[in-house]
Fold each of these.
Amino acid sequence: MVSEKRRKQLNAAARRWYNRNPEKAKASVVKWIKKNPEKVSEFNRACYLKNRDDRIVYQKNWYQENKESIRKTVRRQQEQNPAGYLLQNAKSRSKTKGLKFSISMKDIIVPEFCPVFGVKLKMGCRENISCSPSIDRINPALGYIAGNVQVISHKANRIKSNATIEELQKILDYMKGRLK
């Protein structure tokens, strides 16, 4: 049995060799994988479980160090492909809420202006989220299916929420009565 100190020394030496000889190291790994295909998933699982806690700590630290860069990249991706971003979020929400999901990119048409309020839609607008595009389920019970989705502003979608036309009319009547 190798002591913890000796194991760390061997690992450090192996890392140094790998850094000096990356092509040889990769070739060695590829050769082992080809020779032992049945052991690959077992080996990967063992390595993952063995190093899981260290990997989690590393990932959290890396995220903290690169948080601003990650945010800029995500914002840029959102602005370049708003329909893809909206689709990804809708799919996630459908899983969480147990809703039907059968839409694709062609079902998501992002207009320049909100069809409800007429405000210019702007993706990744953290300061004023009201102007961000949002997928609205016309009939919330049907889920995310073709013909049941449209893109409106986040503010309009938030106001509409799961309300029926009758409920929205009651709110409108109430507000009109309060303003008189």
Amino acid sequence: MKWLGLAAMCVLAAGCGDNVGDSVGSSGQPAHPGEQTYNRFCLSCHAAGIAGAPKVGSPEGWAPRVAQGRDVLLQRTIDGIAPGMPARGLCRSCSDEQLADAIDYMLSRSQ
């Protein structure tokens, strides 16, 4: 029941909307291609580690997932991971490429 409540919090805290486009970083340079997707749809769970989500910035949290390979990470993102991560990480409008970019963004900040 506790996991269900945490998953519900992720759903409620996730970004809304269908536009996921390019963004510009604070330096005025193009941001990482996955940064905006992460900020809108992934941050609410991955920044705090809600429902077992590996925290961005935690190499230890990501190590077992990285060991499985990037293709497995992407497929599990697409399919969802019970009990806490919904399919496509709540971004039904994201392409597989946008999801892969978000994964790359989180990994780049976590190794």
Amino acid sequence: MPHPLVTNLRFARSEFQRCLAGLSAEDAIIRLGPTNCISWMVGHLAWQENLYWVIRAQGRNAAPQIEDVVGFGRPASTPALDEMWAGWRAVTAAADEYLDALTPATLLTYPPGAHDGETVGTKLLRNIYHYWFHCGEAHAVRQQLGHKNLPEFVGDMGHGLYRPESE
């Protein structure tokens, strides 16, 4: 059984997907002022997971094409939504191989290649919070684009129920 924080990450991922359900490829590349477009947000979250859970943790790269387009500090871009979702799916599948093996002890270790003093557990929390940040941002963009019948609040908690941590 995955660690509770991994379950939390998966729930955040599912809420991000729910927030973007029905989004057209055309609307996904619209930038409103300085805000990044929604397709960029999808790719950017894939970039972070790829960096943390695939490149650093496993020594491989599930989506090498993503960093130049949506990596931290890169210029604004409007990548195709289908390409970003394809990268996201490849990255999350590869990341899950690592995440499924996390234990409470592993969460207290420092990831290879990270020099910021954050443990694996802190990186996991950062990743979860990053999803929620972009979920809210994407939702706001969709509201500004005039999209109707958007999800309200947090969805079905059946896949995000609290359970105690165990080894």
Amino acid sequence: MESRRIKLTKRIIKTAFIELLHKKSLEQITVTELCSAADVNRSTFYDHYSDFNMLLREIESDFLKQMPFLNETLTKKDTLTEFISFTRYFKIVP
């Protein structure tokens, strides 16, 4: 079971990552940039995630838990694309 502090730190990292995805492609984002946006140390990022793939898998898992109907309609390959589109839509539309 994760502590509240760990959950909060992960949420901050995920939120900063999603905000960066609104501005640039995944390939353009660096760990340093993400940590700066999240206001955490690189060591904090690596305490929780080994790399961006691990972070993406956790975000994907969180997303699918909130949208169970998507499990039936999306393949893993489509999930990230749909997730980014979904978050961009809700960022633009209040």
